[in-house]
Specification:
heterodimer; A: 132 residues; mainly beta; five-stranded antiparallel sheet; 1 helix; 5 strands; B: mainly beta; 23-stranded mixed sheet; two-stranded antiparallel ribbon; 3 helices; 29 strands
């Protein structure tokens, strides 16, 4: 037997805050430095389903109170930050030594279907540049 | 010039970072050789989604070399970081009549792995949920822990040749190849006895090719061009298959003949999720030029034909556009823009067995013709006036009327309409006062019948369904659904502002904010409201001749209503 549908209106929210900071400097004639950082906070969620309208009482076994937790299944909340440092040591007009270090962090406060995606990543580079 | 550079850097603060980091090599030949390495802890699919994260040291090479010999010159930029991260661009010029541009780019994209761990549920025989019943949702991951990824490659070769003809003309011949290779996750849902979700890894091997030729000529004051493009998509991966569960009663496992008569397949291994090969031909014509001293015309037209090799379906698209700009006075420009396109996709006959064929009361025919939701005619007209009031203030007024006339998709239950029409009004003020730049834009759009999922939610509560004529067993094949749902507004209001101020040659400041409010009051189920806000600021500051500082903040917030609909039934 079908009795129609029960409905509940909800509101979905998404908020993103991003900050960035960069500093480019040449403290000495033969050294150039770049420093960059980026910080991000993102979250998305929707209101609990607690105001059902419709034929909920037609079937004794239906448990609409259980839907009050459905909104928590797909909450998204993450923080990330990144630091990047570039150094350029100029030996002479033709030769430079370059170094880069990058660190990134991602904190997953509300794991979803891909599991807990919290992670950290470090990257480093050291190179010699010859201008010809 | 210096002031302009500082202003641009303030608007795009991240430019400042590579500008100094790149230092003095922008116009030089150089070679850079080094080592690089990375390491990741915990999960690396998000934190390094587009980067390698293996714990090892690799070599790297960057090279720029350019030279000129007579009227022949070339420039090569090369960056090799790994087998999955490389970039190249080579430009060769011969005099001023021949240019060859070759580019190649390759990078890695990690795709993540859905373990289906949330796909587990079982019906309860009591409201307290303590007695398990028969209906359940189960899942299985056949490749647990597998890393899914794809590498994307993009190669382009373009030749530009100026012709030695009486009127200025040139041709362009190009070729582009794109490839996606790797290993991705595929899923299959069986709903033949109970809900059973399966997943496993599958090889990804997709290639797309474009080859084109373009002819361009300057006839009097008009630029005229024609371009033909042939495109092809090829899927080289092996077909992936899943075992589809045998249809049967979800509670007792019986009634196999009855449940098999309601499904198209089951109890067998079948292919799934395959992107079919296809090809596409596109013709484009473009005309652009000035008429007299006060008028400018831009017009274009195109025709394309896309064929799916597997289904032999054709999708044709025709477009046309025309823009006329007229300078009424030195401080007033008006323009009109007309645009039209039409899409026509072949119908396809879905030939399937009758429902419950051979069973008592069954035999209802289910074969049908699927008319494409692509099929539509879309046109719009836009009128715009740009009025420069004085040296400090400029106003822009515009109005756009747009109509989307679909052939087959209903977007309003009440009148059965397949059309969406909208009127958009927009006004913008640009101000310039000394070192202050500012603009403010406000728009309002009224949309009749925005796209919606008509008949998408809410079962008809009426119980008085009657058996089919001459049939005492079957009351209906599918319950009537009567509710409309949409995330598109029927009224949409936007306000946006931006302000930039240059304190001096060494410091500038920028801030922006926007607000959006919309609602859809056409739905028969609920009124959908949405709100959006963004704001941001950035500061650019030259501390001294050696140090540049950039700092910024961006914020966005969106709120939108949606409805959940659950059918209430038993049996």
């Amino acid at each position: 037997m079908h009795y129609g549908s029960a409905t509940d209106l909800t509101t979905n929210y998404s908020t993103v805050n991003s900050y960035f900071f960069t500093l480019d400097s040449r403290p000495f004639q033969n050294i150039a430095v770049s420093f960059k950082t980026a910080i991000n906070n993102s979250r998305m969620d929707f209101d609990p389903l607690t105001n059902w309208v419709g034929p909920m009482d037609q079937i004794g076994k239906l448990d609409f109170a259980g839907y009050s937790e459905v909104n928590t299944y797909s909450d998204l909340h993450s923080d990330s930050y990144e630091f990047d440092l570039n150094l350029n040591f100029i030996i002479n007009d033709n030769l430079s030594v370059l170094a880069e270090a990058n660190y990134q962090n991602f904190d997953d406060h509300q794991p979803y279907v891909y599991g807990d995606t919290t992670g950290r990543w470090f990257y480093g580079k050291l190179s010699l540049r010859y201008i010809f | 010039m210096k002031k302009l550079a500082i202003f641009l850097l303030a608007c795009l603060p991240l430019i400042a970072w590579p500008a100094l980091a790149g230092d003095h090599v922008d116009s030089s030949n150089y070679v850079e050789i080094g080592v690089r390495g990375s390491d990741a802890s915990k999960d690396h699919n998000q934190v390094s989604e587009y980067s390698e994260s293996s714990t090892k040291i690799n070599g790297m090479l960057k090279l720029r070399t350019m030279d000129t010999k007579g009227d022949l010159k070339y420039r090569l930029d090369l960056a090799l970081f790994s087998n999955e991260d490389l970039k190249m661009k080579l430009v060769i010029n011969k005099g001023n009549w021949f240019t060859s541009t070759t580019t190649y780019n390759k990078f890695l994209h990690k795709l993540g792995h859905d373990s289906l761990s949330n796909m587990s549920w079982r019906e309860a025989a009591d409201q307290a949920g303590t007695i398990p019943a028969h209906k359940e949702l189960t899942s299985v991951d056949y490749t647990p822990g597998e890393e899914f990824y794809k590498t994307y490659e993009d190669f382009r070769q373009v030749f530009d040749i100026k012709l030695n003809t009486s009127i200025p003309s040139d041709i362009q011949v190009g070729f582009r190849a794109q490839a996606r290779n790797g290993y991705h996750q595929m899923m299959q849902l069986s709903h033949c006895d109970t809900c059973h979700v399966q997943t496993k890894g599958a090889k990804l091997d997709e290639n797309a090719y474009d080859v084109w030729a373009k002819v361009h000529a300057k006839v009097n004051k008009f630029d005229v061009s024609y371009k033909y493009t042939y495109s092809k998509f090829n899927n080289g991966a092996d077909q992936t298959s899943f075992y589809i569960d045998r249809p049967r009663h979800p509670a007792n496992g019986g009634a196999i003949d009855e449940f098999a008569s309601r499904t198209l397949y089951g109890g067998e291994v079948l292919p799934t999720g395959f992107n079919n090969d296809n090809k596409k031909s596109t013709h484009e014509v473009h005309v652009e030029g000035t008429v007299g001293d006060k008028d400018r015309i831009v017009a274009g037209a195109s025709y394309s034909d896309l064929t799916n090799y597997f289904t032999d379906l054709d999708l044709t698209t025709s477009t046309g556009s025309f823009r006329w700009s007229h300078k009424c006075r030195t401080n007033l420009v008006m323009d009109a823009f007309l645009s039209y396109y039409t899409m026509d996709n072949d119908d396809i006959f879905i030939d399937i067995p009758a429902w419950r064929d051979g069973r008592p009361g069954g035999g209802q025919p289910l074969s049908w013709t699927r008319y494409s939701a692509y099929n539509r005619d879309v046109s719009y007209v836009k009128l715009r006036a740009i009025y420069k009031m004085d040296g400090n203030n400029r106003f822009t007024f515009s109005y756009r009327y747009k109509q989307t006339d679909r052939d087959n998709t209903v977007v309003n239950i009440e009148d059965g309409s397949t059309d969406t029409t909208s009127s958009l009004f927009k006004v913008r003020w640009d101000g310039r006062y000394g070192d202050l730049r500012t603009n403010l834009m406000a728009s309002f759009e009224s949309i009749d019948h925005p796209f919606e999922n008509a008949l998408g939610i809410n079962e008809d509560p009426a119980n008085a369904y009657v058996p089919f004529p001459g049939n005492g067993l079957i009351y209906y094949l599918q319950r009537q659904v009567i509710g409309e749902a949409s995330n598109m507004p029927s009224q949409d209001m936007n306000v946006r502002g931006n302000l930039s101020y240059r304190f001096s040659d060494k410091a500038s400041f920028n801030m922006y904010a926007s607000f959006r409010n919309g609602e859809n009051n056409e739905l028969n189920t609920y009124t959908m409201n949405l709100t959006g806000r963004t704001a941001g600021t950035s500061l650019f500051y030259v501390l001294d001749d050696k140090t540049v500082l950039t700092i910024g903040y961006d914020y966005s917030f969106n709120k939108q209503e949606a409805v959940f609909s659950v059918p209430v039934m038993d049996g």
